[in-house]
Queue: 2 jobs
Job 1
Amino acid sequence: MSAVADMKSRYPAYFRPRYGRRALVISLVVAMVALYFGAFLTFDVPWNRIGPGFFQLIWFVELMFPPDPGGHLVTYLNALGETLAIAWLGTLTGALFALPLGLMAARNIIPSPWLRFPFKRLFDGVRGIDTLIWALIWINVVGLGPFAGVLAIATSDFGALGKLFAEIIESADPREAEGVRASGGRGLSEIRFGVLPQVLPVIAGQILYFIESNTRSATIIGVVGAGGIGLHLSEQIRVLEWRQVSFLILLILISVAAIDFVSSKLRAGMAGRKAASE
Amino acid sequence: MPSAVVRLPDRQLDALKSAYAQAALAKRLRTAAIVAVALALIALSFIQAEIDPKTFFAKIGGFFSYFDRMATLESGARVWTDPAEWFWSFKRNLRLIGVTVLMAYVGTLTGAIAGFGLSFLASPNLTHNRWTVFFVKRGLEFCRTVPGIVFALMFVVAFGLGALPGVLAIAIHTTGALGKQFFETTENIDMRPVEGLRSVGASWSQTVRFAALPQVLASFASFALLRFEINVREATVLGFVGAGGIGQDLMEDIRKFYYSDTSAILVLIIAVVIAIDLSAQQLRRLLMGAERGR
């Protein structure tokens, strides 16, 4: 104990309680808790339904076993295929449009901030709107069905990938482009030989990652009628066919896990090749 | 300075040239193979989803005229000429988007607390029972993989329409997503402070409080902030299935072709989302700075 007292007398600054910091932390926590409980007042929570609701949920879960396609196996597998097709086509379309515009938003390609600004804001605006909202809008344009889903995923990916591509391109090593310029290349050949070879593997990895996460988005896009397995899922929940619901959820879990596995293998392969070539 | 470019004898040059051609050919073949596989998958996808690319070119004009109509009031004037008419339901929308953000807040905080508790049970360096670790990890994976809107659909059936099912759906999905990021962080902490505290006889809770928490708290807070940003976007669409927030009104406006009302809500959503993103980014930068400065 005396050692502690000794240390305290020698380094008082380290042992002095920091009241200011403590007050800040405590008031922050109090404010967060107050906001948390205050928020429930705005939610119009039906307090009398919470108890019965929980029992109902437990009952639903009991009804889910065993999972059973209910004779619609072919329909469901077909819808699953449609979901995967939507994710694949949507991501590629989004990436196709995002790449040139991502170049336009990158500092090392377009030095003028006035030219870059509109592209950056365009990406921010598109990204701020959820995929399901885009799905509703595209349904109004091309009608119900998987095509609206593809376009919805393409649009929201365009925003996310455009911003990401711009950041990746900005982080490219400028010396390679300078090398191309020094040996007489200019303009497009600088981008083609000095920038793109550096960034394409990273971009390909990101596209793979987006295909993976879009498989998840594509499973729910059917909830608003834009194709895929989500349509069946929301229908079966609404008509309380819980065994088919659990079968569909199982189908989604398995296919998402499979896509995750393939894509992580591919990405690891690409990263390995890149590391080996450096 | 005179420079002499060394020219190799033809025999050596030919050997190098053919080696280069071979290497280039191998690379081109691999690229061609990847492109062929991708094209085959694209073709397959077109068939599977029954998409006719011609529809795209026939209807793409509709997409842009959709935005044109969204920028036009009933009277035919542009929306920005009469903001009062454009945002006629501004008060209601503002209240609804407030509820949406609060749903995201409550859901994120609930999920973060649950994920925080579970993450310690899922890290093998703090919990030694292998079965606990296994089942907690699988449970988190389940919460993460099932889309939030599916939970929302089920909760709406159980609890009725309103914000509560939405909050619960966000909370469950957040538990899964944050729980994973949290236990990945906890798994990789520096174990030396932990061992140091254990060696002087600290209890388990003291060890977690003084050795583990200080290492992970800043990254936990940063992950939670990022998740909050994502959840605000998610909360805007939960209303599509009746789970509260601005989504219900938005869906009705889109389905009933109330163009200027749709754009009024969309503008509001984008503004709020960007404002939250920017402020959360600043906060995250502060947190990361605090972590590095320590």
Note: Residues 50 and 56 of chain A are 10 Å apart (CA to CA).
Job 2
Amino acid sequence: MIVAYNTTYDPPAPELTATLTGVVHRRPQMRLPTWIDTGSDMTAIPHTAVHRLHLYAVGRMDVEGIDALVTTTEIYTVHLSISGQPAQEMEVVSTEQPFVILGRDWLQAYYLLLNGPNQNFLLSQTPILDEK
Amino acid sequence: MSQNTIQLPSNLYDAVRRQAAAQHKPPDSLVGEWVSEQLDIVEADEAAAAFEAEAAAFEQMKPALLEQYTGQYVAIYQGQVVAVGDNRLALVKEVYHQFGEVPCYVDQVTSEPPRRVRIPSVWKVK
């Protein structure tokens, strides 16, 4: 699918919308802006979603942030769906950011072509370019 | 919605009425919102305490777990191993299906340091 960059950012950014629910119950749910982040090992959700979706911590993990400091943080499990793509159940951590950070754990199943000049991107589970 | 009666001291009820008027809401709605928020907080606190207890049980049992389950994931609920498997997500779902959505602790049984991930685009994880 081809998605237009969100031009409210400077510079414009490839952004999606994710719907989050718990892994057992599909209500309540939250729709959140979602940034594609090839630098992140793992997907992260806003901490507000942990409260709204009544998620329970299920484990712990060490996370290194932008300041290179390591923080031990809780792991949650969510059902994450992006419009037009198969939903995935995932382990995530939470951050203070108001958006989802879609890390390489989600991106492993996708081909992604950023088209900066046209301010859009192509996301697909089948090859986009000739791989030869 | 069922009709129930809760008695409040008159000074408290007056304060609720003033707040409700200021927020253009019926007093019943405002009290309902406040009670709901407080119950969410209490439930979250109880879940966090239960999670800490399960994590502590895992650490306490770890020497014995290493002898039996090295390399595997175990789910701890009410201080006991209730499920064993190859990945955390499957075990969490197994616990939820068996016991309902309850606080539990799921981790890999290993003597290695915990997994470290990088999310360099954030200042702070919660």
Note: Chain A has one domain: 2-122.
